[in-house]
Amino acid sequence: MAIKKIVSYGDETLRKKSKEVSKISKKIQTLVHDLLDTMYAKNGVGLAAPQIGENLRVFVIDVSSNNEPLCPLVFINPKIIKKSGAVNSYEGCLSFPEAYTNVRRYKNVMVKALDIHGKPFVREATDGSLLARAIQHEFDHLDGILFIDHCRNIEEANKVLGEKGLAPVDEAYLLEEEVLEKEILENPVQPVEDEEE
Ligand code: ZN
Question: Which of 57, 110, 190, 192 is the most buried (most CB within 10 A)?
Fold first, then answer.
């Protein structure tokens, strides 16, 4: 168990599609502990395996606040089995130091995954909660998708990146999210939170 170096934006590892875990081996359990140690050390809300250089379908999340006991959640081979609604989510990412922007997310998600012992579970997160948004942010990392790809247009994305001295994103990565955008415009009250994942 160890605190690992976080892979920064620009590294190819973050753009690769990660592989399913075939067996919950000692190596995978160590990876989970490394993810948790690193996430807590960096005060993050979530961390995905590619962010510490492992292209495997594993991420961890802890949405407990500072004065609450730790509540680590481990997701191995996650599948999003239901999603609905839409929210604006003000997000950052541990791989993009100090860059934050508003991105579009589903309001409610249901995810099926394996825990650290290989036991399947289903977790629902609703109301655009931090957990709902973190699950989507971390899930994206497993498919090589970054939060900046959810920006509404390339100018917005590159402004956020440029202000922090980060390289512009290739326009081809930007996601078409017309349905989410329409729903956000029709339901304008949105939560705003400021967390790094
Ligand atoms: Zn991230």
Answer: 57
CATH number of the domain at 158, please.
Answer: 3.90.45.10
Centre of ligand 1 to C-alpha 147, Å, is 7
110 C-alpha to ligand 1 centroid (Å): 19
Residue 4 lies in a domain: no
Sorted by sequence, the CB contacts under 8 Å of residue 33 that are 6+ apart come out as 1
Amino acid, single-letter form, for residue 26: K
Q: φ, ψ for residue 81 (rounded to 5)?
A: -100, -10
Which are the catalytic amino acids?
A: 138
Number of structural domains found in the chain = 1
pLDDT in tens, 136-146: 999 999 999 99
Task: Output the pTM of the full model.
Answer: 0.92
Most confident of 25-39, 59-73, 92-106: 25-39
| Domain region containing 140 | 12-196
